[in-house]
Amino acid sequence: MNIQEKWHEMHSQKRHQPRYPGSDLVAFVLRNFKKNDQILDLGCGGGRHVKFLAENDFNAYGLDYSANGIKATQELLDLYKLKAELKIASVDDIPYEDEKFDGVICYGVLYYNPKEVIEKAAKEIYRVLKKDGIAYIVVRSLKDYRYLNNEKISKYEVFIDEKDTLKSAFKENGMKMYFFDKDEIKRVFCDFRQIEINSIKISYANDNFADENFIVILRK
Length: 220
Prior knowledge:
Blueprint: H1 3-10, H2 23-32, E1 38-42, H3 48-55, E2 59-64, H4 67-79, E3 85-88, E4 101-107, H5 115-128, E5 129-140, H6 145-149, E6 151-152, E7 157-159, E8 176-178, H7 182-188, E9 194-204, E10 209-219
Parallel strand pairs: 1-2, 1-4, 2-3, 4-5
Antiparallel strand pairs: 5-10, 6-7, 7-8, 9-10
């Protein structure tokens, strides 16, 4: 099963459709964008962030390469009588014109792709952002437990084989995942005039293991 088929299957299941937007993203969007700004959620999954954008008077757009993800997003919008433009597409081939968006969100998506796709996605995000537009990207750090505890394919790529059924990585078994340090973030997003990199860590089981992500804020 390839990555697209795996996400198509996962997005058909309610447990892989988080209901609430990330609190960090909510605070950032409300602080940095204004009513009617055009914002793209790249890799929208089950639609939690598209819903948040639409209900807060932004012009919301959502892309995902899983048809079930787009279906779940549309059903969520319909439930709350909200509107957004949704398309099935890959992160490295965004079907919109140059300088279309005031903002792009890509929340926990890029690291499920290989290096070449991530590099193309970075170019596409830059292309579709307006001048002075902002992207909010969440990627996984080399300090994340998935990187530390799994087989390394290369410096940044890992094959996930999680034995503990209680860990969230268990549902990612069989996937290749791409991790970042600050140097790799700067390399991948080198086109942007400003790159801000912050960390967010959530630990579990008395601090025995942790999700660790970078929040990357890019200004064109």
